[in-house]
Specification:
By secondary structure, this protein is an alpha+beta fold. It folds into two domains: about 25-85; about 85-180. Helices cover about 30% and strands about 30% of the residues. The strands form two sheets. A five-stranded antiparallel sheet has the order 7-6-5-8-9. The radius of gyration is 16 Å and the shape is globular.
């Protein structure tokens, strides 16, 4: 597979399902409105490190979308929409990559959106400890998929969240893979 070099490239490939179980995602407000989805939403940004907006009710998404654009916080072409994950059911989340001592893992068990959770409390582990934590939290299907991603996307960071219930676009996975990016 070719490397993921930009956030826009990632989003296109993410929406196509290349990285496995993920949040239901729509490319634009119009795509979302035609979907019929009625759960809580997350307005995301195609700009790496750009702002993101969580826990938006479906009946308020248009107000949020246009408010973000008209306020100048983001351009319309930079935004996309995902279903909001069940963050209250988060068991474990973070970023993992292959390192000099096996896997390197930056993680948290705080049940909040990942950016907030990692700031509130995070840990860095490597090698056998990282592997043991991943095996403890991820179901076997999610573990297999993570291994596939690590083998396929060499020199990439895999961002993931694991929930107390299966959740996402692929039935039976307790882990959602949020991002694959070069480190």
């Amino acid at each position: 597979m070719k490397p993921v070099r930009t956030k826009s490239d990632f989003v296109k490939r993410y929406r196509a399902g290349e990285f496995g179980n993920c949040s239901p995602t729509w490319d634009s407000l119009e795509d979302y409105l035609h979907s019929g989805y009625e759960g809580p939403l997350h307005i995301r940004n195609r700009v790496a490190g750009g702002p993101t907006w969580y826990d938006i009710r479906c009946d308020a998404v248009e107000v949020w979308w246009w408010g973000i654009i008209f306020s100048g916080e983001a351009r319309e072409t930079d935004l996309y929409i995902s279903a909001m994950a069940p963050t209250d059911l988060t068991l474990f989340q973070g970023e993992v990559q292959r390192g000099m001592r096996g896997l390197d893992l930056h993680y948290t068990t705080v049940a909040k959106p990942m950016r907030t959770a990692l700031v509130e409390e995070s840990h860095q582990v490597s090698g056998a400890v990282a592997t043991a934590l991943l095996h403890h939290y991820l179901d076997s299907r999610s573990q297999d998929w993570l291994e596939y991603l690590l083998e396929t996307y060499i020199d990439h960071v895999i961002e993931l969240s694991t929930y107390d219930v299966p959740w996402g676009t692929v039935p039976g996975y307790n882990t959602c893979f949020w991002e694959v990016r070069l480190y």
